[in-house]
Each structure stands twice: as structure tokens, then as C-alpha cells.
Design brief:
This protein is mostly helical. The chain has a single domain, classed as Alpha-Beta Barrel (TIM Barrel), CATH 3.20.20. 56% of the residues lie in helices and 6% in strands. It has nine helices and three strands, in the order H-H-H-E-H-H-H-E-H-E-H-H. Strands 1-2-3 form a three-stranded parallel sheet. Helix 7 links the parallel strand 2 and strand 3. The chain is globular and about 45 Å long. It starts with a helix and ends with a helix.
Length: 144
Amino acid sequence: MVSEIFSGPGWGWHIETAVHVIRLILGGVFDRFPNLQIAIGHLGEGLPGMFQRLDVMAPAVTKLKRPVTAYLRENIHYTFSGFFFPPTFLALLLELGGVDRMMFSVDHPYQSMAEGRAFLEQLPVSAADKERIAYGNAEKLFKL
């Protein structure tokens, strides 16, 4: 059971998703398709803690048009997906410089809507920012 949980939803899913996003960036996908936008979950799948490291490592070995973090800030959108953790939220908020790429989600059946709503309500952002996170950013991204 331990192996199953940590190879999937407890750890592996997040790390593998983050690696795939970085591979898309390093492979030049967003240089070829600069308007491409993708959404990932779990407040960035651990990427917020690596933003600066990625920029330090990438220039020496890539031919990207921009720093890795530029793609993470301009081509990626981030959902909560049940990551109702204030420090993780704040790390992403600081790295993105605002909430315009953050979207509410719950990750049913792992987390409950009540937990998600409570987390959204206690976020240390303005009421307008909470509205953007709750639905405004998704409406804009998906043209709803």
C-alpha cells in the first residue's frame, strides 16, 4: 500500500507531471507555440520551489528564447487540486507575482468541496483575487 500511494498520488504523480512540464519547456514547445496554455494541478506539482534553480541550470545547456520561469509564468496555469496548504499557495503566489494563473479545484475524491471552499475563503488575498481564483481565471482561460 505504501508503494502504491507514494508512487502515485502521494508523490510520483506530482514529480512526473512536473518533469513533463519541464520537458515541454526544454523541448522548445512554447517557443514553437508561444500562445499555447496548459493547466496543471496541485499548486504547481512542486515546481514553485524549483523556479530559481531551473533558471540557474537551464541557460548553460538550452537554446530557449526565454528563461524557464518565463514559460512557467506565461504558459502554465495552476489549480489547487486539493493542495490546501497555505505555505505552498504563498510560494506559488510569490513566484507568479499574483493570482492571475491560479484556479480553484478540489481533486475529488481525495479532498472535499467543503475543505476547498474553506481554504479559498481564508486565503490572504483580496476579495477580487478570490473571485479570480474561484471562477474568473477559468472563465478567461477557457473562454466560458
